[in-house]
Amino acid sequence: MQIHFDEGAVDKIKPHLDPDKKLLLTFEDGVGPYSQHAMIHMQVQFSLNVVKASDPATDYDTKIDSNLGPILIKGYSQEDLNANMNVHFNKTLNTLILSGDGGDIDTNMGFIDFTEANGVRNNPAR
C-alpha cells in the first residue's frame, strides 16, 4: 500500500513536518484521540494528521509508504483504502482529495496539525 502526494499537496503539508513529527491517516470513526466521532459522518471520511513523534498512536498499527515518508493508519481502515492512492491538492477550494485505484475515497480530506494551537479550528474540511 502506498500514497503519492502531488506537488500542491506536498507544498501544503511539508512545512508542517520535521523529524520530531509523524503523519497519521485517520479514518474518522471516533476511535483514538485524533478522530472525530463517527456519528457526524454520513460517508467514509479521512483526515491527514500531524502529531508529535512522542504523541501516543497505539491505534495506528500499520505503516504505509509515501513520498512524504511513512504514514501510520489504523490497520482495519485498509478496508476503505486502495493499494495505490493519491492525494491531490484542489487549489480553488484549498482542500485535499484522497483517491485510489477505484476512484475518489474522500473529496474533502481534512488536514489537521495537532502540534499547532489552532490546528483543528483552521481545518477547512471541518
From TrEMBL:
Pfam families, per this entry? Fe-S_biosyn
In what residue span(s) does the Core domain sit?
1-113
Protein's UniProt name: Iron-sulfur cluster biosynthesis family protein
